[in-house]
Write a structure and sequence with these properties.
heterodimer; A: mainly alpha; 10 helices; 0% strand; globular; B: alpha+beta; seven-stranded antiparallel β-sheet
Chain lengths: 187, 285
């Protein structure tokens, strides 16, 4: 069954069809949420939220279009909302009150490539929210140019120039603050 | 940067970025299927939706709802002007620092030592610069600015309440820079100058505030000068939004009335009863 057929069935209330679609896209959705939020539990909740919202908005979705970019748009939106939600604030207050040390981000074990990726991720997080998201989509999640354009909802030329500028800004950050990453010198 | 070296950099970012280790993808499909089975349709009417939210919260608090509450994501909110009102479960009541007299000040963070810290701590790695430290003095010490200066700083016409009779100008005026200017007007209690009598917020068009209320049942729709308004009792949290972040959080003990008018959103924070609050709000013209 094609994706549009599954979407049509889901739209009519077929739960299995939607579940199939969720399975197909849950990894990409989860990973984008994880990149934006930096927390596995929150990413899981936001991923669920994204699929719930998408399901309820299926009427407005043209089933001829690919589903993933639309799902990722919803995900980025939900993740951004989550960033400023009260649960985050309360969790941090609780940590302050309980004087619990914040868990250090784990760069333990793993290959050199993974280590570099973690460091690059830190560098990316120095950029603006918009720059971060475009870099996550195109280079971390490895979406195609067309898919990236689709998620952003802008003209291809606009997406390309935004990407170009984001990469340049990332390079400036890396050269300034992560010199080891510049030419793969973590050895 | 030459074209060639740009392409080289681009490829480097891609090959490095795609190597990032992720936590294992959880069974989102199963969880979504279970949640949709419980709550398949979204109710359309706002009133029904509001009742649904209140009902869900009540059931969750009573431990009756089989589906566990979503840890993080917020499903519903009610919007009035530029204020979004979310219900939430007060699971942290005992651990949030108790409000001190200074917490009554409209510009103090809930905990003096942690002022600014919560905003930093909520975002583990952020590209935004550290939020400015929030001043924590009492209203008496923090004198704010003059009304004339405030008029220069905001991009809308400042209107003042004319009730109660003989009210006079505000005792303190502050302008906070969010995505636009937020004007804060404080009238102090003459008997106790550390306690505000009431506070009026005037939100410029781009300003956004999120309110989280523990007592959604004590929130109701009303009217101010014929415009839709919302009155909420009991303690709540405010998140001052700037960009994508909650720049600052405040825990507010008193009640609040939110309404729109003159193309702006207004908020009145007070311990006065509802009827008085409405009179004050209706006099802001």
């Amino acid at each position: 069954m094609t994706e549009s057929e599954l979407i049509d069935r889901a739209r009519q209330g077929n739960a299995e069809a939607w579940e199939t679609l969720v399975r197909e896209h849950q990894q990409a959705v989860y990973r984008l949420a994880y990149l934006i939020l930096g927390d596995a539990h929150e990413a899981e909740d936001v991923a669920q939220e994204a699929f719930i919202r998408a399901f309820r908005a299926l009427d407005r979705f043209d089933s001829e279009r690919p589903l993933r970019p639309w799902l990722l748009q919803i995900t980025a939106n939900a993740a951004r909302n989550q960033r400023r939600a009260i649960s985050r604030y309360l969790a941090s207050m609780r940590k302050l009150v309980q004087a619990a040390p914040e868990a250090a981000p784990g760069i333990a074990g793993g290959s050199l490539a993974q280590l570099e990726a973690e460091v690059l991720w830190q560098a990316v997080r120095r950029l603006s929210r918009a720059d971060q998201e475009i870099i996550y989509l195109r280079y971390f999640l490895d979406l195609s140019e067309a898919e990236t354009v689709s998620v952003l909802g802008v003209a291809p030329g606009t997406a390309k120039s935004r990407l170009h500028r984001a990469l340049n800004r990332l390079r400036a950050v890396v050269e300034r603050e992560f010199p080891g990453l510049r030419e793969g010198r973590y050895e | 940067m030459s074209n060639q070296s740009f392409e080289h950099w681009e490829e480097r970012v891609r090959s490095t970025g795609t190597a990032l280790p992720y936590p294992p993808t959880p069974d989102v499909a199963g969880a979504v299927a279970r949640r949709l089975a419980v709550e398949p349709e979204r109710r359309q009417s706002r009133r029904q939706r509001w009742a649904l939210v209140a009902g869900v919260v009540a059931l969750v608090l009573a431990g009756l709802l089989a589906v566990p509450p979503v840890r993080a994501a917020v499903l519903e909110f009610f919007r009035i002007g530029n204020v979004r009102i979310f219900p939430y479960e007060p699971t942290f009541l005992s651990t949030v620092p108790a409000s001190s007299p200074t917490a009554a000040s409209p510009l103090t963070a809930p905990s003096a030592t942690a002022s600014g810290a919560p905003a930093r701590a909520t975002v583990r790695s952020s590209s935004t610069p550290t939020p400015t430290q929030v001043p924590t003095p009492t209203p008496r010490q923090d004198v704010g600015i003059s009304l004339a200066e405030a008029r220069r700083q905001v991009d809308f016409r400042i209107r003042l309440p004319a009730y109660p009779p003989g009210l006079g100008p505000p005792d303190r005026v502050f302008v906070e820079r969010l995505d636009g200017p937020l004007l804060v007007l404080v009238w102090l209690d003459k008997q106790d100058p550390d306690r505000p009598r009431f506070v009026v917020y005037e939100l410029g068009s781009r300003v956004l505030i999120d309110k989280y209320t523990e007592s959604i049942q004590k929130t109701r729709e009303t009217e101010v000068n014929g415009q839709r308004a919302v009155w909420g009792e009991g303690p709540h949290f405010l998140a001052m939004i700037r960009g994508d972040e909650a720049l600052r959080w405040r825990r507010v003990e008193s009640s609040a009335l939110v309404w729109t008018g003159n193309g702006l959103t207004y908020r009145l924070e007070t311990d006065l009863p509802f009827a008085e609050a409405v009179k004050i709000a209706e006099s802001v013209r």
